[in-house]
Amino acid sequence: MSTVHGRTSDGLFASEHKPGVWERSRRARTAILYLLPSIILFSVFIFYPMFRTIYLSFFLTNQAGEAAVFVGLDNYKYLLESSAFLNSAKATLLFVLYTVPAGILISLFLALLANEKLRGIGFFRTIYSSTMGVSVAASSVVWLFMFHPSIGMFNRFLAIFDFPQIQWLLDPQWALISVAISTIWMNTGFSFLILLGGLQNIDEHLYESARIDGAGYFYRLRRITIPMLSPTLFFIITISLINAFQTFGQIDILTKGGPAQSTNLIVYSIYREAFVNYQFGTASAQAVFLFLCILVATILQFRLGERRVHYQ
């Protein structure tokens, strides 16, 4: 332990103790010891699978998933030339465009309503956030019955007004939209709760000052609410983008990638390629492609979106 002496502003001497080499080494070992459980968990469940996937993407594999023949970039070339994979990429992009903007706008609208100081508003806050307590599997089964062509609620509603029935999950033009509708409903509760928390953290004095100056509701929304809520919106948009790219459960239960591969998103395509066709090499290449898509989308979100974020 070394000691450094110096003169303070009032002319007195003060000493500052700086840790020596052995002390710094002991602190580093202690820090690593505390981090060790997290390092082990991340290594086993994240880093090893990730590097193993990248490794397998350069090989043809056997049915046990073991690397058999090194093919280099052939798996990636095959994907770029495969109409099925390109269709999956297109369906994934459309699914993201359907679910993310609509889901965030609906959640923001509900959060603005639930943030009003009205009697009994707590009941509606509970209802709006209740979708968080329902699993994807249970929600998908409910939506499966609602989309049923003969006994489903939606077609019964259309029959009241003599509209033609829609094959919601059987028509390629409607299947992806139907899955997107169910996904928006499933994700609304989480987004609503986060946005409501962000709204309740905005200083009420800002609104009072704006009211005194004669500002209307929409002016306050545009000049106060949205800018002050921008960090929360930035978080929700980023999380929603990542979740949309990784959607699997509702696809598996509602459509299984059909009809005519119209809902065969990349994640479901990876599942079928690996665990149905036992082509782990091309499945790993698809997983790497999906990882790069999410990485690029996240980087663009941070590069472009964070400029409009107003941190308090």
From TrEMBL:
Keywords: Cell membrane, Membrane, Sugar transport, Transmembrane, Transmembrane helix, Transport
InterPro entries membership: ABC_transporter_permease, MetI-like, MetI-like_sf
Gene3D superfamilies named among the record's database cross-references: MetI-like
Presence of keyword Transmembrane helix: yes
Domain ABC transmembrane type-1 intervals: 89-301
Pfam families for the chain: BPD_transp_1
Annotated compartments: Cell membrane
Membrane topology annotation: Multi-pass membrane protein
Chain segments annotated as transmembrane: 31-51, 93-114, 126-146, 174-196, 226-245, 283-302
Entry's family note: Belongs to the binding-protein-dependent transport system permease family.
Name by which UniProt lists this protein: Multiple sugar transport system permease protein/sn-glycerol 3-phosphate transport system permease protein
Native source organism of the sequence: Bhargavaea ullalensis
